[in-house]
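look at this record:
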Amino acid sequence: MSEDNNYVIIGISGCTNSGKTTMTDRLLKLFPSASQMCQDTYFLEPGDERLEFVPEVNHSNWEKLSALDMDRMVRDVKQWIKDSKHSNSHQIPILFIEGFTIFNHSPLKDLCNKKYFFTMDFETCQERRSGRNYIPADPEGYFEKIVWPMYFSNKSELNHYKDIVYLNGCDPQEKTLKTILEDIYTLPALKKLHFIS
């Protein structure tokens, strides 16, 4: 994507429970006029025939890109771009897109000016996920047999892209936030903004 646009789209992706939402929330506080889109709101409804059912865990596979309505998400992002071009605001429109497979869908990935991917180790990820409640809930064995293998499968699809910045989800948030901010401010549209420490 060209960096000469009068808007900025930042993609934040990565492993489940790796800190994507927390980091997005922190960035939104620094850019209060920015917008946000979360991939989680585009999941298909439980029971949708497009979901892949895994008999081994008696559960649908929610970790695949096909479990999401990505066409609708791309349409919404393009609508945001259209709206931002007609905005009367003197501020640069910024959109933060957060989700675990947003870079696996090329039409969405290509709309992002900057891309960040949070990695995570097995033990930390499992511990964090066990403290979260999902609807529908994770059945026994779902993390080990579906979530973790799909994380590596989804991540491996991105290996040939050179414009994704990989970040360790276990690093201190202040360090990660500083890294992202320094990188964001290299964009021509944001270079004039003062660095926020």
Notes: The chain has one domain: 8-184.
